[in-house]
């Protein structure tokens, strides 16, 4: 029997934020649709992530879709998600919580990459 009360999967906090690109799908009608904007990945789990960017989404929670592009270890990753929350973080910067909409194969890929990334950081003493 599992005595764990943890409901959320483990979240990996990036002590050194990872560069990423955010893309609003071309199917969206808003400004910036289909274009890439730089950002940084602050933390990550198999259910979501936290990012910071200059992109002002002016979102309605759950209605704003985006695609996040980043590389943890060996593969370039690209996942679609939904913005769950956001706020202004300093002058011209915005921070967003994104729920990832992963298929089973994507989740397995992400877990493999997280494992490689974690082992690499341990080997470096980080």
UniProtKB/TrEMBL annotation:
Residues 33-113 form the PilZ domain. This is PilZ domain-containing protein. It comes from Paenibacillus phytohabitans.
